[in-house]
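Hey,

The postdoc asked me to send both predictions to you directly instead of through the lab channel. I've kept everything plain text so nothing gets mangled by the mail client. Protein one:
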Amino acid sequence: MITILRKWLDYIFGDILKIGYRIINYKNMEQNIIVTIGAWQFITGLVTMSVMIILTAWRGGHKIGSIENSIDWIKDEIGRMWGRLEKVEGTDSPLNPTERGLKKIKDSGLAEIVDKTYKEWLLERLKKLLPKDHTKYDVQTVARRLMISLKDKPMMRSVEKYAFDNGVEIELILRLGGLWLRDNFLKVPHKIAKKSEE
């Protein structure tokens, strides 16, 4: 039985070794291969390849877009939990800053930015970013993202300084400012949360 198995393995691997030896010996040889195709075949092949590349890129773009949406959702959820842990944001609906959050908005200078200095500019930016058939929730979400996206802009220097001087993350204050921007867009007065989650 062992002899048969050995012969069988030698037969299989022997051929593989012979093929490998031939490849090594032919390694330095140069061969030219000429393929003749018609113009229509060339054009058809070129169009097919182009369509395949475009479809692959388009399909991949959708997957990347859904990943980006998932990451944005995770960031929003973490920010929401963070605001409640810091007791700067209430739990009632719609969301509003607590007394503690209001103090951060005013002391940082963000109230002045959102309600006076850059009010019209922020409202225009928000309007451009919103989907066509937006809901109030869309306004809130996009307003918060807009405010956070402006954290490195010169207009936010006072907020940045306040955050640094008081050991507060600037994003936390800007998320609260997003609630005020939402109110301005919806033309409703700013409110203070009735309670915060204890």
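Protein two:
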Amino acid sequence: MNYLTRATLLLAMALCGAAFGCENASQVRLNDGPSDVDADTDTDNDADTAPADEDDMTAQLAEVEAQAADYLDILQRERATFQNYKRRVERERAEQKQLLEGEMLLKLLPVLDDFYRAMDAVPEAEQDDWYAGVAMILKKFERYLTDAGVAEMEAQGALFNPAYHEAIGVDSASDVACDTVTMVLQRGYMLGDRVLRPAMVRVAG
């Protein structure tokens, strides 16, 4: 209630008191708002409510933070799982590619064997320009295989290893140590760290 309205009501009450014989019209109180007691009570209630609200907000914040931590943990686990899956797929693709390339290169090895047999069958006295031309073709063939990752095994004189050698005979009269490769009948080849074709050999008995 503003000042002008309050003053108007006080004047009206004074006139009313004079008209009806009221000795002290000012004894009539105006209830134009909350009393000081009510205000104090509301203040006390607000003071009691504030800590409770703060506790609720703290509890809610802790719950949200815990939920966010759970979501972060789940996200990190899913990311790690995806990275492992990606690496596994890339590894499998590389292995599949190497396998397919190995199958193709393996089919070329008999052709290389025929080249070596043909070159070895030509006597030294007959190694003319034609022979030199074929030798150049053989060098290109060997270079192609080398660039593809194919390498010849060093089997002659090595200790027999069934992972790399295929024994087709035993030389009992050999003067070398037992299980030593005495003769290479067919060259063996590696593709990277994998055996492309084992060497066909004879070993000392």
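Summary for protein two, as requested: The beta strands are 150-152, 165-171, 181-186, 189-191, 194-197, 199-204.

Thanks,
C.
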